[in-house]
Structures
1.
Amino acid sequence: MEELNSLESGAEKAAQIILDAGGELVGKTRLQKVAYILEITGLGFGFSFEYRHYGPFSEDLANGLVDAEVRRLISHEERPATWGGTYSIFRATGSSSKSAVLPSRDRVLQATVKANPVALELAATAAFLAIEGNPSPWAETQRRKPEKADKFLDSAKDLYRQLRLVDTPKALPEIFR
Amino acid sequence: MSFKFQRIRDPLHNLIEFPGDEFHHAMWKVIQTYEFQRLRRVKQLGFSELVYPGATHTRFAHSVGVFHTARKLMGVVKKRLGEEAYQNTKAQRALAAALVHDLGHGPYSHAFEDVGKRLKLTMADHEKVTDQLVREGEVSTALNGLGSGFAADVADVIKKAGPASIYGAVVSSQFDADRLDYVQRDRLMTGTHHGAIDFNWLLSNLEVAEVSYGVDGEAVGKIDTFVLGPKALHAAEAYLLGLFQLYATVYLHKATRGAEKLFTELLVRLVELARDGSVPRTGLPQKHPLVQFAKHPEKLENALALDDYVVGGALSMMADAKDHSIATLSKHLRDRRLFKCVDIREHLSQKFGGEQGKGKDFEAICNALEHKVVEWCKNNPNEIPYILIDKPERPIYKTMSEESKGPLDQIMMKPGNGDEEPFDVASVSQVVKAIKPFKAFRVYYERSDEKAKLAIGHAIDAEVEKWKN
């Protein structure tokens, strides 16, 4: 963990997530949820998260991304999505250097960077609710996000099971309901 | 059962009526609660009255205004959805949420939140306080008069913990009641002539339409949201431009922000002293609400005991404090002797021929200079920092664009022919396209402090020289 905590600024930490994810990460929502999963498994950078419309969100991370772009540690491209909005692509630049990634960190990243972003949002939301002490996190996630859950709750549960198999410094909470 | 008809005179909306029905009776009871009445003692714009003497309006007046505006928006929803599709219970939850959405604000609102962020004080976060009050406070009892669980449903609407819907859009969207009230009220009360919006025209052209939404690149489905008719293009432009101007001239005014910075330093110092058992040095008695909050910031009742009156009244006591920082900062605030401001961003903009002159380099220059000033402060520590730094940035398209950006986070226009999907106003308006987030970078120093003044000047000169070529 020492190499992660030695990073000084939010910008460097945000850039490091992208670098460790293979140099490219697609989607702001995905980036937030990836960072959250890393954080609660003890593999994160010390970002603090609160509940927002898309589930756990870190303002410090969002600010770090902006600073990282200004400092050219990352590049940020916006593309039109098929549904009418836009989505972001973040790429690490040559200005940031990749350090050795912990195997458990690498496995969490592998599972999340390619996951469906809606499933990831739902899984991260359920984890957030479980940590907050909600007795039925999946049911509550379904209540809060019914349209998303209708289509993606099963994939979210699969993804969560997969993530729980990774041996991490802190275990993801077990969620039954 | 009959209920009493009530009304309130409002400087912005004139008559705000509470008809004699069960729902409005419950809302009237909410207004009578201790927590809601406290909002009479919390100014809407905090220290803005140091710049605009008229801006002494309160969160109380704003909250009632938001409720009134929300009812107007809900009228649009009802008209557009039709009686059959309109869901009264959901509408009432959203209207109640509009009324109580600001309950948790502390004294000098956003400056108080900054103290909370610096010291990790949970009950300085107005969203958390609001949530707890709506679920458990006196307000909760008043709300649950409409049915058990109603208060929790209202809290969910405010927290956006429920499914997104057109009813929720009344409380949180580009056209939510909160913004539509404050953009008009703050303009009226400050007396500024910037930022006028054509509210009635916007409302008259507001419709409800189905738009697609998704997460990142993944489509999820369709959802109802507010859209503007084609004749409201210029009113939409004025609305966004108005917001931008209010940020520049009111909300982030350099003197207001300067006062907020002093307030933050004052409260941080007070909490430090209270925590290490040095209350006698603060000039305040042990039982003073500020001391109680400093000692136990996790207690809701301590947060609720604070308001602008409590803090304003404490300034004269703290001005006589034994602690030098407390006394100095209190006098500065009480007597409006604000630190001198150097607007670095403006200064650099002039030097480099505008912010766009060098593209993103401009941000890099600001960041490099900020880094330099921070380093200087680290090397020159002082009880009250010699230099206070302020670098705010406010997107005009609200913070919802912080994650997936889509139709729910933008102002959508309905095409003239009615067949096509609604489109983002920015795609047809050069004015909207040109509105960037408002950014500032300022530093403040005590007016007689030549050392800090020189350090700032040297830092700017060195950075300008470095980037000149």
Note: The helical segments of chain A are 2-5, 10-20, 28-40, 59-70, 103-113, 117-131, 137-144, 146-164.
2.
Amino acid sequence: MFEGDIGTRYATRRLRALGHRFVVEADDPELGRYLDDVLCGLADDEPSVTELERYELTSEERSEVLRHTLRWEGHHLVTTAHASIAVDRLLWHLNRQTVARSQQHLLIHAAGVVRHGRGVVLPAAQEAGKTTLAAGLVRHGFGYLSDETVAIDARSGAALAYAKPLSIDPGSWAVLADLRPALARPLQELQREQWQVPADAIRAGSVVDRAPIRYVIAPRYVAGARTALSPLPRAQAVRVLAEQAFNFRGFPAGLQLLATVAGRADCYQLTVGSLTHACELVDQLVTDAADPEEPRAGGERS
Amino acid sequence: MTPRRNTPPAHHEVDAAFVPRRSPGIEWAELDGQAVLYDGSANAMHVLNATATLVWACLDDRTSVGELAADLSEAFQADGATVREDVMATVRRFAADGLLAGFESPDEARAGDDTPASGPDAPTPASEPGAPTPRVLAPPPDG
């Protein structure tokens, strides 16, 4: 498999999203390089694996209008006049395939970050602010696992990375303004509705493969609210994790796995009114616990 | 002594003679004195309070509600009538939530009967049910 320019086509490096191994080919080299950059957190370092699924992004002028077509394994996914729609569909399909190909893990709809070797899982529903918080924490010095799906390894209980680019919505652009991707003019259309920011662009070397889960923190963004961490009973944390799992139903011994994870972790709810303050609170929590000189406190922090 | 009864009555008719048995489909774990139960058939999760956890942990397929209440009353040196009332309410709630053998989960009951699973005279909730919804990723972006 070639990487980079192949004649007029461009192939990304080999990529791996948990159990989903793939490559993206684009006949627009600029678009191909863009995808290679934003998906760099998924770089697959096991070249011995030859079974790769293939996405193809082709551009063709029809009736003086440029049309972009996305295919996966030869199946047509979308044809559109907007490259941004084709890229959004690619990332959406990638999420779905990652979940479908990784059923050996318990998959939690959560962001995941790491500090001092301690994994922090942030389970929450859509629009709770997972991506914004993960971006803020990586910028603050945390390692990155995912902004969307944390996989729990059934044997060890560790969190495994799905280090997709952080998909930052317009509502968070103001508080994360420094993370705006600097794209050349033809590619600027791609960030019209969402920024795709690889963790390495926030802080080089921030992607972490796996980490033991030491914290379960359920975040919730509430505009104007006082930012506060409050203890969450472990049994409630199990429920939150189960509610946010993609494949809890039917997962072998899923409840026992979540009970083991929660039993080893400190569990909290985090109300986020200020991103900066939330990042400081989480950092302080994890750093205090990592420092044997500091006493551990189990109460509310704000 | 009241004769023991193994046949499940309607949940609101659970009495001191009833011998509660956990539904075989329930997985459960206990963390910091709180039980968390998963009912796979209804895809429902329940987190029990401390009292309900104690009652749940004591269910052994042999002990009747009345005997269990007497044991707990003695162990905690608490008022017998109050303990009996609490245990009864808790077991009825377990039954109403489909956590005991022979009782349908509320979803199953609703499928075959229009009667609400809990009414205005339902006991104080011992558990906080919640359904882990099978998650589906958001629909594809437009286009």
Note: Confidence is low (pLDDT under 50) at residues 112-127, 131-137 of chain B.
